[in-house]
Protein 1
Amino acid sequence: MKKQILVNTSKNFRLMELTSPKDLSELNLSELVIFKLPMDLANIDDFHKHLSQANLENLQKIKDEREKIRFIKTRGLVNILFSLENGEAEPIWKLNEYGKPYINGWDKDFSISHSTEFSVVAVASEAIGVDIEDNSRDIDLEKFKRTKFLNFDDGAYESKEEFLMRFTALEAYLKYISKGFHKDARTISVRKVNDAIVIDDGSLIKAEVIKNGGYTISIVMNKKAYLKGANYG
């Protein structure tokens, strides 16, 4: 029976496709793992049973069936990861002033992102942001370049691949600072420097960008924590 599927390894994290919560029995939360969840009904009940009462109440407000699947799997997974450290304690979900979810009293940060067929979830002991985008999505590069909504270098508009490397890095950064697009994206410079994506928002931070199965995924973490396993030269 197929369990954990390791789909990418970097020097900083593992990207793992997860189909069932049962595959988490030997997980070590001290290791950074980014979970890639297929948005189908497989094992949906195994995620649903881990939803908190507040999660269930919010689930009732969601009308779109696809959005329900995303909610069940991502919230269920976060609650499972919470329970690995906190036993039977009830996860108390909250929203910050910008709408980013967190669990009250848990010393972990987490980030969630959705695409067409997959969602990703990252949990870390430091601030973290993650974003996933489908490489097949339609993108009007010329329109983005004309509107100047984004502060990217010109290389971003040479191809969809180059654009998505920067766009996912920007979104991951906005989640990392817990503000989303409440912060003006034009004030954040995103550039490719020596094949790395570097974000300048008054100080420099590097995003890690990977391509996996037709998707682009970016991660931004607390710089001090990230430097433990990365060279920022």
Protein 2
Amino acid sequence: MLVIDLSYSMSREDMLHEGDYEDRLSTVKRVVSDFVERREGDRLGLVYFADHAYLQTPLTFDRRAIQTQLNQTVLKLIGTQTAIGDGIGLATKTFIDGDAPQRVMILLSDGSNNAGVLDPMKAAEIAKRNDTTIYTIGIGAGEMQVREFFMTRTVNTAEDLDEKALIDIAKLTGGQYFRARNAKELNTIYDTINALQPVQKATQSWRPRTEWFPLPASLGLICIVLVTIIRRNDV
């Protein structure tokens, strides 16, 4: 389950990519879309959180659906704050409702919990009780040089990131915490998680492309027509 922060701070342009800075959400959308592409045979879902949590895409084998929803994502969709606990809670509920045998959550955030009704650690405890592993990712450049008029100053663009909470959530659930300061690091993190959690291909429901059930009915109709013709010829 992909659990992604959609708070307003995700619009901050501090993620270095190919020599230029881009906003955090754009980096996440591109990197996560590439990750989804490599998860053939895996059931994936998409949960967003800001003022509250929102299930964007239920668990599905349809990677294109996940990528489409991800690429169409915009900020302020569900507010501007950060409800990390609600995001974990909703993702856990989705696992339970979907009877998912393998429960792995990848939680990405650039802030600290300041909204919602569920405490992040309480949510993590519930996730653990339901056999869910949570990998957490803290995103944001940290220190960077900002030019203002005729001078340059150093700013900490990740001052709101609650790394301790993300570390504790991962540790409690048997996962791992990662720190992404630029696009390259974020891509490496998802590569690592992809290797740590190889796809366990679940059995998909199967149905034939050709529907055979109309055949007996068709044969019955043909028999009735033939009997009618024979009777007419006998008269």
Protein 3
Amino acid sequence: MILQHLKKFQKISETKEGVTRLGLSDWEEEAHAAAASVFSRSRKIRRVQDQAGNSFIVNGEGKGPHVVMGSHLDTVPNGGWLDGALGVAAALSAMQRILKKHRNAPVAVAIWADEEGYRFGNGLWGSRMFAGLVKEDELTQLRDHDDMLLGYFLAERGLQKKPRRSRETGELVAKISYKPPIEVGVYAEAHIEQGRRLLDAGKRIGLVTHIAGIRRWRLESMGEMNHSGTTPMRERRDALVPISGMIGRLPQLVRGVEDGVITCGAMGVEPGVANVIPDRAWAVVEHRAPTERDQDEISRRLKELVATTGPRAPGVGLEMQSISSIRPTPMSEEVTGRLEEVCRKAGAESMRMVSMAGHDAMSVARVAPAGLFFIPSLKGISHRPDEDSRREDIKLAGDILYKWALAEVERVL
């Protein structure tokens, strides 16, 4: 069953260049609907949608608490077929198997919206909203590449009310409207590792103990547009110069920080014309580390870099804005231990590990006991069209999740 579900999702928005199914898009909604259609013949099972774009496939009429499994169905541009989709397919398969044994099981599948955060840079969107972690100023400050404000975009999708200008200050103000549609009693998520630690260790399952923190910043500089040929170098206010200089120094900021990483994954200049000096340049910088202390240290170094770069670029304004900040998050020891026991009984060699990639489980962990486990990624590749895992490992993910969820259901029945 799990492979059938995965193939169904893969066909939605697949091209020769991979799978492009961006968060909060029509393609993502089609994938959510395809997942819900698995239970279309059942009158007891309902699909519940919320004001964040999440979908919940719920057995029965009660609000819970439920045994919940899930992940996401959005992708990065030209991404792979397993990132997120594995967890949803495994959850659907597990729910189907559980309901054959217990028709009234308090079980649900969560399909979180916009986990990748590609368009607005605010990852884990749907699960953060569910956990009450979204700040209202995200709606009035975050913009996409076309300068569309997140709050306006959400209003167009019918998810939130349009931001309004304050009569007192004239500033845009957004008010989040959200109420979780179900109660999570316990949660588990299956995912591909997206690295090669499991492969190198010869293990089939990775049991995540902690998920590294993720902070994203927008660096922006403002200069003066002018002719690239007739403006002498001494008279230029080139907005790109300070940004590019800082990007080249980013690797220095994580020296001495164990498992610390920093990346500039998006940047741009305006007007973007070869013979025009840029009057605006921007870059999105992300850093990750397993502890909040290490995250604070990297942030301090980045702020210091911005502060010392500004004076060396006279006539150019330089700003640093926080996009999102997700704290390092421990997974539930109880859930992890039970998953470990399931692996032991199944004869699947496992290891405990830290996840350097963010996952929806870290949001859910703020409101309920949550666990996360990995299967190996072939060659450690992810976020690429050639992302893949062995078929036997994919099936194992479904079996482990099913056995864990069945045991949780039988505890409460």
